[in-house]
Specification:
By secondary structure, this protein is α/β, with parallel strands linked by helices. The protein is 37% helix and 15% strand.
Length: 391
Amino acid sequence: MEQALSGLKVLDLTRLLPGPFCSMLLADLGADVIKVEEPGIGDYIRAWTPRIGGSSGYHTVLNRNKRSLTLNLKKPEGREIFETLAAGADVVLEGFRPGVMAKLGLDFKSLERNNPRLVYCSISGYGAEGMYRDKAGHDINYLALSGVLSHSGIDRPTLSGVQIADLGGGALMAAFSILAALFARERLGRGQFIDISMTDGALAWNCMRWGKFIAGGEVPAPGDDMLNHGIACYNIYRTRDDRFMSLGALEPQFWKSFCRTAGRPEWDTPLYFQPGAHQRELIESVTEFFLQKSMAEWVEWFRDADCCCEPVLNLDEVMESSLAKERAMVVDLVHASWGAYKQLGIAPKFSLTPGGLRSHAPGLGEHTRPILEELGYSPARIEELKSSGAV
């Protein structure tokens, strides 16, 4: 079946998480993503444990549906191959520090000479310009400098279980921007350079707290907001068996349903949604309530209640959940070398051009020969390039 991005060619130079997740999104929807890796080393995430067969579990999830080409960009022959590929590509995606690609002569200004329609996306911690452009950083630093950490948690800044800046501020922002630039290319006839700062992207995720701050003037802090442990109707509660239930009964109809099902009609007052000292007392009361039963008992108790009360599942429970299976978000695959495993499914569901899992994450350099053959290199020349360490 035709896929939404079939025919799109992407050269992906990124490593680890933000860039590979971005290119995975494009590959899942049909783009031909060529993962360009250093010979003998490849994406550093390949070495991370634990492993599935001979492959890192992280690499297995992030690099499905891609082809792997090894190129030594420090050698003229390697750069020549990349330039040839870029001349016929739609997108170049890279995640080096600003200036690295320019030193190689493979930056946007260099590549657009032979391909004016090229969309070139650079993902970095702090952007291509500015006082922080050359600084190293990780997700925790981007969240710290963007203000996200300052109001996360209850009584102190708390890290999320997923990498918000890497994925939300970097990968998703890049994927969206690449598609926007490709759409603009159809009108303008030219590609363009996209500068993605993961700190900028994370800062944009402050939109709710930013709106409240500029209107009310109170600096956000951990545990001070209706969506941040500040009110009883939107919170996480421990159960008798040391599991947790999530309660999101913000709207009056959901809170009324929760109170009725809980058998605590006295909680249903207009003050339930108002900030203030009374919220601490209400949170304590709801906390004591949830401690009376196990998580499984509460799931059954609230099964038919329309009150936004759901269990906090572990990943092993998510893998077996009806919800994930019905939505095809857990997919059973079999690798020819190391057998069966469960892969994450594809989140966006297209009615006409659905995404698909076409191939497993590639071995390092698995597609080097066929890609070079597509460029017209002879078998003898390919062997020469391998012997010289160019590929």
